[in-house]
Design brief:
single chain; 799 residues; alpha/beta; Rossmann fold; Dimethylsulfoxide Reductase, domain 2; 34 strands; 17% strand; globular; binds ligand MGD; binds molybdenum atom
C-alpha cells in the first residue's frame, strides 16, 4: 500500500518561488491529464465569485472585490479533480475485487475518476455491485434500526455544505446518537478547546480586512504556499504596504519565502518576486511554546525596564552570568527611546484580561537557556521577534496545523492568545487571531451542529422544532470512534465524505479492526481506501460534487459554506453531473433518514425539493448567526457570523480574556533529549495533494518529484546517524514500546530542518502514530510531533 516503484525520482532541485511559472505549468498539466472539456478552464472564472461556486479546496476567505481569476494552483487542481471526465463506473468495479484494490495506491484509486452508481459489496465475489437507491436506503434503514443508537457513528469530512450538515446532524440526533465525529477532531480541535478558554471564541477573530490594516503578521506553523495559496495574495499586498511578516516554522517552506503572482502578467514576464517573510525562525517541532514564551519574556522584561526597573532587568533577569545580548540592548534602547509609556498595553490588560501577573511571573522565570534549548531558536532571535512585535501597532497572528496537531496543541493555542493579549492585538482593526482552517466548510459544519459535544448544540430548540427528545450524552470524537471500533462498542459507521481510515492514526491496527463492524456506509465522490476496508454489509453511495448543477423539483439549487474568517457564502454548481445516477448529498441524507427514523417531524422531501427551506430551518435554529440567511446568501464577500471576541466581548466563565500559563514547555515524552538516536517526526502535506487525495508525486516547493516515500532530515543528523542522502531507512515509533509500529523503505532527503527533527508525508506515515498519542483534552492526534527511530532498510523500492 505504501511502497511503490519510484519512477526515477528527482530530488533536491530549486523549486523557484511560490506561484510563478511552476504554478501555471502544474495547473495546465492536471487539466490535460483529467481530460477536462474546454469548458473547464472557463469554469474557473466562476471560482470563489459571488453567484459562482466556492472552491472545494481550502477554506480561505472570499473577498467582496474579486480578482478577475479568484483561484490558486491548488484550487484549480481540486476543481479539475472533481470535474474530471474519468469514471469509476460499474465496468470498473466488475473488473476488480476489493481485495485487489486494497493493494492499490491512494493516487491510483481516486485517479479512476468519479463514482457513478450506488453500490453494495457482494461477499461472494468480493466486488461492489450496482444497486437501486431505494434498495440501498431500505437495507441501511433496516440495519440501523436493529443497532442501538449509541453504537452508530456518523462521521463528517469538512466539505459538505451547511444545508447537508444540518440535515445530517438532525438525522443522527433523531435516530438517537450524538456520535458526530468530524475531520475537525483531527485538525483544529485544539483551537476549539483552547480559544474559548482564552478569549471565549471557538474560532479565530480575524477578518479579511485585518490583513489590509495590520502592520505586522506573525505567521506560525502554517504552510501558505501549499495549503491556502490564495492567502499569498493577501500576504503579497501586505508586504507591498511595508508589513513585516515574522514566520515560525519547522521547515524552510519556499511558499513562505517568495512569491510570484501567477495571475499578474508583468510579474510572470519580469520574474519579479515578492519576498514574503521578513524574519524566518525555524523552531523545533513542539518548540513553539518555548519560542512564544521567549517572545513574551522579552516583551515583558522590556516593559519592566521601561518602567524604570533598569536595563539589567532586560538582559539578565534569569540571573545567569551572561553578557547582555546585543539584541536585548538594542530592543531595550529602542523601547526606552520610544515615546509610548509602556511596551505592553496595560490599559487593555487591566480592563479586559485576567491572569497577567501569573503569566508574566512565569515568563520572567523561564531561563533563556531552557527556552533556547527547547525552541531551537537563539535568545537573539526571540528578542528580535519581540522587537518587531512591539514596534507594530496592529498584528495579525496566523496559525495552522503545526500548532494544533500536537500533544500540547491546546497550550500552543493558549500561547498565541497570550502573545496577542500582551499588546491588545484582539478586537481592533488590523489585529486578531487567524486560525487557518482546512476543508472548505469544516468551520461551518460545526456551526450547524456537527459535533460530538452536545453542549455546543441548541438541543432544546431542535426538540421544539422537530418534536423529539435529543440525546444529551457526550458523543464520540474520531479518536473515540477508533477506540470504540477496537473494543466492539461501535457497530455501524456512516461517513459523509472523507477517507477516515487513511486520516486517523494507527492505520494497520484500525484496518484490522474495521471488518468487525456490522454496517459501513460511505457517501463519496471518488474511490478511496476507506471504501475498501468495510463492514459485513457495505454501501458506497455516490453523490454530486459542489461544482455540479444540483437540479431538484423547484429548480437548480444553491448551497452554502463558512470560510476561515467566519463569513458565509452561497455556491452554485455549473457543470453537468458526472452521472445521471448521482443524488445530491441532501437527497441521500433524506433517503437514509426516511428509511431509518420512526419519530420526529422533518419535511425531508420538501427540503430536498427546495434548499432555501433548509436555510430557513437553520435560521430558525440559530436566529442570531443566520439572520436573513436566504436574503444574504450571495452577498459579495459573504456575511459575517457574529464573533463576540471581535468586539472585545469575552464569552468566558469570568467574562475576561484569560492569560493561561502552560505548565510545561514541551510534552513529557521528550525522550529525544535523552536518546540522541530518537528524532521528532512531523507529518506534512505535499504541494500535490489535498489530504488523502494524492493528485501526483511532485512536491515542487520542496524539490521532490516522482516519490512520496521520503524522510526529510538535517544534514548533520544524516551524518551523525551514519546514513547518506538517498539511502533508504525504516522508521519505528519510539514511544509505547509494547507495540511495534514501523514503516519501511523511505528515502533520506537532506533538507533545511532543525537538528533532531524529521518530516515525512501524511498519510503514508500514519501507521506510526499510536491512537493514544494526542492532545489530552482535545484529542487532536499529535501528527506534528512523534518520537521515532531510523534504521537502514532492506526493503528498497524498485527503481
Ligand atoms: N493543497 C492543499 N491544501 C490544503 C490541504 C491539502 O492537503 N492540500 N489540506 C487542507 C486541510 S484539511 C488543512 S487542516 C490545512 C492544513 O494546512 P497547514 O496548517 O499548512 O498544515 P500542514 O500542511 O500539515 O503543515 C503545517 C506546517 O507546519 C509546519 N510545522 C510542523 N510542525 C511544526 C511545529 O511544531 N512548529 C511550527 N512552528 N511549525 C511546524 C510544517 O513545516 C508545515 O509548514 O490545509 C488545507 N488546504
Ligand atoms: N498524519 C497525519 N494525518 C492527518 C493529518 C496530518 O496532517 N497528518 N491531517 C488531518 C486533517 S487536518 C484532516 S482535515 C483529516 C482529513 O480527513 P478526511 O476529511 O476524512 O479526508 P479527505 O482526504 O479530505 O477525504 C477525501 C475524500 O473525500 C471524498 N469527497 C471529496 N469531495 C466530496 C464531496 O463533495 N462529497 C462527499 N460526500 N465526498 C467527497 C472523496 O471520496 C475523497 O476521496 O486528516 C487528518 N489526518
Ligand atoms: Mo484539516
Amino acid at each position: 500500500m505504501t511502497s511503490r516503484p519510484q519512477d526515477k525520482p528527482h530530488i533536491g532541485f530549486d523549486s523557484g518561488p511560490a506561484g510563478g511559472w511552476g504554478s501555471a505549468k502544474s495547473v495546465t498539466e492536471i487539466v490535460l491529464r483529467e481530460h477536462i472539456p474546454l469548458s473547464g478552464p472557463s469554469l474557473l472564472r466562476h471560482q470563489n465569485k459571488p453567484e459562482g461556486y466556492m472552491c472545494v479546496s481550502c477554506a480561505w476567505a472570499k473577498p467582496a472585490k474579486t480578482h478577475p481569476l479568484e483561484f490558486c494552483e491548488n484550487g484549480a487542481k481540486a476543481t479539475a479533480w472533481e470535474v474530471t471526465s474519468k469514471r469509476a463506473d460499474e465496468t470498473f468495479f466488475a473488473a476488480h475485487t476489493l481485495g485487489e484494490l486494497e493493494t492499490w495506491l491512494d493516487h491510483d484509486l481516486e485517479e479512476q475518476g468519479r463514482l457513478t452508481h450506488p453500490m453494495r459489496w457482494d461477499s461472494a465475489s468480493d466486488k461492489y455491485i450496482p444497486v437501486a437507491w431505494d434498495t440501498a436506503f431500505d437495507e441501511i434503514g433496516r440495519e440501523l434500526k436493529q443497532i442501538a443508537p449509541e453504537m452508530v457513528d456518523f462521521y463528517t469530512s469538512g466539505r459538505a455544505s451547511l444545508e447537508t450538515c444540518y440535515m445530517y446532524q438532525l438525522f443522527a440526533r433523531i435516530f438517537g446518537s450524538n456520535n458526530l465525529p468530524d475531520s475537525s477532531n483531527m485538525c483544529h480541535e485544539s483551537t476549539s478547546v483552547g480559544l474559548p478558554e482564552s478569549i471565549g471564541a471557538t474560532v479565530g477573530t480575524a477578518v479579511l480586512s485585518d490583513f489590509q490594516n495590520c502592520d505586522c503578521i506573525f505567521y506560525i506553523a502554517q504552510n501558505v504556499g501549499t495549503s491556502s495559496p490564495r492567502l499569498l495574495h493577501d500576504l503579497q499586498d501586505a508586504v507591498h504596504r511595508g508589513v513585516k511578516i515574522v514566520t515560525f516554522n519547522l521547515l524552510r517552506e519556499p511558499g513562505l519565502e517568495r512569491f510570484i503572482n501567477p495571475q499578474a502578467p508583468s510579474e510572470m514576464i519580469t520574474g519579479s518576486e515578492t519576498p514574503i517573510s521578513s524574519e524566518y525562525y525555524q523552531v523545533r517541532n513542539g518548540g513553539d511554546i518555548a519560542a512564544l514564551f521567549g517572545v513574551c519574556k522579552a516583551l515583558i522584561e522590556a516593559d519592566d525596564a521601561k518602567q524604570s526597573l533598569g536595563l539589567s532587568k532586560v538582559a539578565g533577569s534569569d540571573g545567569e552570568a551572561r553578557s547582555e545580548s546585543a539584541a536585548a540592548v538594542a530592543f531595550a534602547a529602542a523601547m526606552t527611546a520610544a515615546d509610548k509609556k509602556h511596551v505592553l498595553d496595560h490599559d487593555f490588560i487591566k480592563e479586559h484580561t485576567s491572569g497577567f501577573e501569573a503569566f508574566a511571573t512565569a515568563a520572567r522565570a523561564h531561563s533563556w537557556d531552557n527556552l533556547e534549548g527547547t525552541s531551537g531558536l537563539t535568545r537573539e532571535q526571540m528578542i528580535a521577534a519581540a522587537r518587531t512585535y512591539a514596534e507594530s501597532d496592529a498584528v495579525v497572528l496566523v496559525y495552522g496545523m503545526g500548532l494544533t496537531q500536537q500533544v500540547m496543541g491546546v497550550e500552543n493555542v493558549h500561547m498565541v492568545a497570550n502573545l496577542a493579549l500582551l499588546r491588545g492585538n484582539i478586537g481592533k482593526p488590523g489585529a486578531n487571531i487567524c486560525a487557518v482552517r482546512g476543508h472548505s466548510n469544516v468551520q461551518g459544519q460545526r456551526t450547524v451542529g456537527i459535533t460530538e459535544k452536545p453542549a455546543l448544540v441548541p438541543l432544546d430548540k431542535l426538540a421544539e422544532l422537530y418534536r423529539f427528545d435529543p440525546p444529551r450524552w457526550e458523543g464520540r470524537s474520531t479518536v473515540d470512534v477508533c477506540e470504540a471500533v477496537l473494543s466492539g462498542k461501535s457497530r455501524a459507521f456512516v461517513s459523509l465524505g472523507g477517507n477516515f481510515i487513511r486520516a486517523v492514526p494507527d492505520t494497520e491496527i484500525m484496518e484490522a479492526a474495521w471488518p468487525k463492524l456490522r454496517l459501513t456506509v460511505q457517501i463519496a465522490t471518488k474511490l478511496n481506501r476507506s471504501h475498501l476496508i468495510h463492514g459485513e454489509i457495505a454501501y458506497l453511495l455516490p453523490c454530486l460534487g459542489r461544482l455540479e448543477i444540483d437540479q431538484q423539483a423547484t429548480g437548480p439549487q444553491a448551497v452554502s459554506m463558512e470560510s476561515s474568517v467566519a463569513h458565509f457564502h452561497g455556491s452554485r454548481g455549473r457543470v453537468q453531473p458526472a452521472s445521471p445516477h448521482l443524488l445530491s448529498e441532501p437527497a441521500i441524507i433524506a433517503g437514509l433518514a426516511k428509511a431509518t427514523l420512526t419519530r420526529g417531524i422533518v419535511p425531508w422531501d420538501e427540503w430536498v425539493a427546495d434548499y432555501s427551506l433548509i436555510r430557513d430551518a437553520i435560521e430558525n435554529t440559530y436566529p442570531e448567526t443566520f439572520k436573513k440567511f436566504n436574503e444574504r446568501l450571495f452577498q459579495p464577500g459573504g456575511f459575517a457570523r457574529p464573533v463576540p471576541a471581535r468586539e472585545r466581548k469575552w464569552v468566558t466563565a469570568n467574562k475576561k480574556a484569560n492569560f493561561i500559563t502552560p505548565s510545561r514547555l514541551f510534552p513529557e515524552f521528550d525522550i529525544s533529549s535523552v536518546d540522541d538516536k530518537v528524532l521528532n517526526l512531523a507529518t506534512l502535506r505535499s504541494n500535490d495533494q489535498f489530504n488523502t487525495t494524492i493528485y501526483g508525486y511532485s512536491d515542487r516547493f520542496r524539490g521532490v518529484d516522482g516519490t512520496r516515500q521520503v524522510v526529510f532530515l538535517n544534514g548533520e543528523d544524516i551524518e551523525r546517524l551514519g546514513f547518506k542522502p538517498g539511502e533508504f531507512v525504516d522508521m519505528t515509533t519510539a514511544i509505547e514500546p509494547g507495540v511495534v509500529r514501523s514503516i519501511q523503505g523511505f528515502r533520506i532527503v537532506e533538507y533545511d530542518i532543525p537538528r533532531g527533527c524529521c518530516a515525512s508525508y501524511y498519510p503514508e506515515a500514519n501507521p506510526l502514530f499510536p491512537l493514544g498519542h494526542h492532545a489530552p483534552r482535545a484529542k487532536t492526534p499529535s501528527y506534528k510531533l512523534l518520537p521515532i527511530r531510523l534504521s537502514r532498510s532492506d526493503k528498497v523500492p524498485v527503481e
